[in-house]
Amino acid sequence: MTIFIAEVIVDVAAYPVDRSFDYLVPEEMVSLIELGSRVKVQFGPRNVLGFVVALKQDTEVPLEKIKPISQLLDIEPVLTSEMLQLAKWLKHETICYEIDALQVMLPSALRAKYEKIITLQTDIENLPDALKPFFSQSSKVNYKEFEKNNLLHTLKMALKEKVVVLENVVKQKGQVKEVRKVQINDELEKLIALSKGISNRAKKQKVLIEWMMQHVGETLEPDTLYHETNTSPQVLQAVIELGAAKFVHEEVYRDPFSKEVGKTNFLNLTDEQSLALQKITSSMRDKRTETFLLHGITGSGKTEVYLQAIAKCLEDGKEAIVLVPEISLTPQMTERFRSRFGELVAVMHSGLSVGEKYDEWRKVHQGKVKVVVGARSAIFAPFENVGIIILDEEHESTYKQEDNPRYHARDVAIWRGKYHNCPVVLGSATPSLESYARAKKNVYSLLTLKERAMKQALPTVQIVDLREELKKGNRSMFSQELIESIESRINKKEQTVLFLNRRGYSSFVLCRDCGTVLQCQNCDISLTYHRSNEKCKCHYCGYEEFVPKFCPQCQSEHIRFFGTGTQKVEEELYKLFPHARVLRMDVDTTKTKGSHEQILEAFGEGKADILLGTQMIAKGLDYPNITLVGVLSADTSLHLPDFRSAEKTFQLLTQVSGRAGRHEKKGEVVIQTYTPEHYAIELSKAQHYEPFYEREMLMRHLAGYPPYYYLALVQISHEDVMMAAEYAQKCVEWLRSNLSFNVSIIGPTAAGISRLQNRYRYQCLIKYKIEPDLIPTLMQLIKLYRSQWIKNGILLSIDLDPTMI
DNA sequence: AGCACGCCGACT
DNA sequence: GTCGGCGTGCTC
């Protein structure tokens, strides 16, 4: 007799169980179970969720050890075999648990929710008195109830006496949303017979059934029925009991799109655009695994190239994945896709609820849509016949996931491109140095758009030296030039966007007598003052407190708020331009769902003269009346202790400048800075990417950073400083003796934020060019950590290819 | 990870 | 003599 065995990866993220376990497939499941199915299994003493990663007919494991699968959770498997392979690759590439790699590909609604349930075993009278009231309603009670009421001790006794038992149940988080509809009986004769049999007193029932006779077999919403026939639920209920119709439950998708969009057509392409499109489509036609870098200046119409390439892909009967950075996933952006491809588009981003995300995912899974537009995780869209993958704004750091698995969407995109033999298009006005270097070495194919699509001139950029302003005695944050420019816009009824680089610019709370700055209790970072609720908040761990009346150090009452947050700039703007209408966009004003869109929409409709904001306004803003962009301080991001700070600054400035004058009216940009001579600022003036690239590459070469060297970052943290330092040292020594001399190891050094959530953090950086043994060696380090160091309270994480240091 | 098993000190 | 501390080891 043949037996069927499934290899299962269980939902337990731990080092010793990071492998598959064999389970017996019960007979009734044999024809249903598939690779990628979710199953419920007993694992040791508990019930857990697992994924079937292989099916086979024999096993090395002694049969008496093997348990059967207890339940199959999906009729259709949730993961394709492509995903299973991808998970193995991710596990190796990012050094994570296989289960984490699998879970990251699915919407969180499909993750398991574990609950402990206590079941009564005997008569309620045999229970200790304290427990009795809990079981008066039902014999099953959630463990949490006892936890809440401090009865765990009594419960433990009861468990020991076996008057109750504890079981772990696995539940699914997400729910398929259903609506109740009425399905009218499809036999006309039956309806006629019923209508004849109805007593003359039941007039409404008669009306309803007669109406149904006109709509035999249809399924419709109860409300339509009531409306059409002027009846009520009671009448319908009666008619249903007679057998004229029945209630059915229908699966529906939650609709995250609030408004309808019209249809738009293809725009005419410039020569450059057509050439780029043609290269991409011919690569699709030849099923080449080719990665393109589409380098097009702001306003050059990259999106139109994407749209037409996707149209071609759909014509070939294939699917398309489009990734955009989270912050630019605005309605303006998604509408462009929906207006072109209508119902064929699913949108995935973090603003959706768990249920909405699940629905969008199901549309893809069930083949109802052909195009996905989404943030990072949309790269795992479960399409089976991908024709093109597009990463817009390829240089964005949001494509890198900052917790496990620490994957980069670009790498996953290229992997999937290889799997499906389809092109991957990386698009940007300011490509990451890594990508541009690869394009230059012909690893990627470079496509260039040098002209703006509608031939608009680039905005004129003026760089203002704030040191000169200071000499002139202007100590405000607005230079004379900027003030004049804003004034002229207000007079001309044109709009201004003011950009504040928030990093290092948030307002802190300072004691004027002793100089103490309020610090977070858990992190080594100063608290940020929020005027809206008069509190100070830690942006890293969420800790908050009311602004103290007296300085905690010297008891002085001279406490003041210091620094330049968006709120402060707003106040100053009102002083300078009392009649200007200002919209502020920052973490405070965009807390509620949809407020982001509302603000942008209001601005687009001309309800304000000035839009003031942080990073989030740098992207996607495209309104014809914006003719001035002001950057209040360009250099705040320049002095961060990160080797990418110059690149980030250049990208940001170019991006922001690109917001001005995208339509008929000419744009102007004013950049204020204390270091106008810095190449990142100077070269962003004319959007000269190439010279910037050359210059920055030289710097990277000299300092030994990417793209010349690869990086790996190991972070060690502990509640005790000494322990953290000691183990960081241990770690470095271990790496030195296990890696070859081709590798340079820097550290240990204290991390940028040396204390976070009450843990002291150290890190060391590994720079290498070629080190084939790096991953195996790091895996050994992880093994050492997971098997020994972890017991002493050490936390260690490895980030291959870190984006921030 | 999370749970059982098992071996030693301080309590009714 | 028993309760409970947490070191060790296993999970198909």
From TrEMBL:
Positions that bind Zn(2+) 2: 520, 523, 538, 541
Known cofactor(s): Zn(2+)
All copies of domain Helicase ATP-binding, residue ranges: 283-449
Cofactor note: Binds 2 zinc ions per subunit.
Keyword list, A-Z: ATP-binding, DNA replication, DNA-binding, Helicase, Hydrolase, Isomerase, Metal-binding, Nucleotide-binding, Primosome, Zinc
Enzyme class: isomerase
Domain Helicase C-terminal: 546-700
GO BP terms in the entry: DNA recombination; DNA replication initiation; DNA replication, synthesis of primer; double-strand break repair
Keyword Electron transport among UniProt keywords: no
A Pfam family of this chain: PriA_3primeBD
Catalyses which reaction(s): Couples ATP hydrolysis with the unwinding of duplex DNA by translocating in the 3'-5' direction; ATP + H2O = ADP + phosphate + H(+)
Statement: the UniProt record of this protein carries the keyword NADP: no
Gene Ontology terms for molecular function: 3'-5' DNA helicase activity; ATP binding; ATP hydrolysis activity; DNA binding; zinc ion binding
Residue numbers binding Zn(2+) 1: 511, 514, 551, 554
EC number from the UniProt entry: 5.6.2.4
GO cellular component, one term: primosome complex
Protein's job: Initiates the restart of stalled replication forks, which reloads the replicative helicase on sites other than the origin of replication. Recognizes and binds to abandoned replication forks and remodels them to uncover a helicase loading site. Promotes assembly of the primosome at these replication forks.
Protein family membership: Belongs to the helicase family. PriA subfamily.
NCBIfam families reported in the protein's UniProt record: priA, PRK05580.1-3
The protein's assembly and partners: Component of the replication restart primosome.
Protein name per the record: Replication restart protein PriA
